[in-house]
Structure formats: structure tokens, C-alpha cells
Amino acid sequence: MKTRPLNMPYRAIIADDHEIVRQGLRTALETPGMVESMGLKVVAETANGIDTIAEVKIHKPDLLLLDIAMPFADGTEVLPEIKRWSPATRIVVVTGSNGGGLVCNLLETGVDGMFYKGASLDELYRKLPLILRGGRYIADPFLQAMEKQDAAQSLTARERQILNMIVTGKTNKEMAELLFISPKTVDKHRTSLMTKLHVHSLVELLAYALREGLIDPANISGQS
User: How many angstroms separate the Cα of 146 from the Cα of each of 103, 141, 180?
Assistant: First the structure.
């Protein structure tokens, strides 16, 4: 179990695009006795994926409370970068999406906790001490979704990035520039993810991703 000096609170970042959610979580985390006896220290709040990555790089917090559906770069794109820049940060996802495909991919990426936004937050507050000290906790709605998940092969972190960029209407060239890889490599990842999902067109890809909760409908750009 992870030990810390008695006078050193855990440090946290809250990433959610709704200010009222961030305020509520911050109040709970910082209140002595709600989660930890001396409370946690919230070092930053962010409302989009790009800012979340930047703040994590700066602070390298003990805990990141992360919403999956955020502007600019959603949680599934943020996760690999968090693991890259701050591997010791405990990542807890709080989301209203519980598609089986999404759950499997989040777990594969290495999240330490998953909690459902539609449920009482009491469960989150009770389980955070366990997660902060190295444990893992997945709430029942996500476990049930995993049981219903078919045998489709999970996407890699890079394939998920490509999928989310396709959804927002980016071209292969634009994706290559953002990911610092060649357009040929982008096309390879794109072909691989469509093969894994057993789809043959962009329309089929979007329909599958929506059905399985792999993407947020709000992120979909107009596609030709």
C-alpha cells in the first residue's frame, strides 16, 4: 500500500466541462473527512482535454478525476497522454456512458476507477481512498456492460485516437500532423480499426461506435 507523510494531502485535478460538476467535486474532495481526513488539495480544474493534459504535465497529481466527454480532446484521447507524462497519477473516470466497448477500452488503457454519473457520488467518495493507495474499483453499471460486450477485439489507444479524429471530421493528413506520424501510418490504423469492428464504410463505423458507446454523439462532425 502507498504511504505518505501524515501532513501531506493528496493532490488532485478535476477535468469536466461542466462547472457545477467541478465545483461539487472540489468541495467534496477538499472537505476534511469526506474522502480523506485532512481533505485533498485540488491543484487545478480543467474543462477540455487539451488543458487537462497541460495541467497534468505541470502538476503530476496523485489523482485525476476525468470526464470522458470533453471538448477538443475527449477522455479517450487524453488517457494515453496522461499515462505518458504522469504514469503515477491515479485516473478515475466519472462518466454517464457505459457502453461495453468503451468500458473495455478504458480498462485496457489502465484506468484505476470508473464511476457512473447517474449514480450517487457517495460510492465515489467511499472508494477513492482505496484507489489513492493503489487499489482499483469499477462500479456495477460498467461491470454489467462488460458482461454484455461481444467478442469484438478491443481497439488500441492509437486506434481510439484515430477513431475520435475521424468522428470530428479530420482528414488523414490532419491526423498525421496532430499525431506526428505519416499519412500512410494513419491509413494503416484506420484500416485496422475498421477490420476489428467489422465495418466497411464511414457510416457503419460511426453507427457501431455510437451503439457501443465508443464515442460521444456531441463530438460527431458533418461527414460526407
Answer: 7, 9, 33
Tally of CB atoms within 10 A around 55: 19
Comparison of pLDDT for 206 and 41, the residue scoring more? 41
Q: Do domains 11-148 and 157-219 have the same CATH topology?
A: no
More confident residue, 45 or 166: 45
DSSP for 156-191, please give it. Answer: PHHHHHHHHHHHTT--HHHHHHHHTS-HHHHHHHHH
CATH number of 157-219: 1.10.10.10
Q: How many CB atoms lie within 10 A of CB 122?
A: 9
Reported as a pLDDT band with limits 50, 70 and 90, residue 182 is: very high
* Domain 11-148 CATH superfamily: Response regulator (3.40.50.2300)
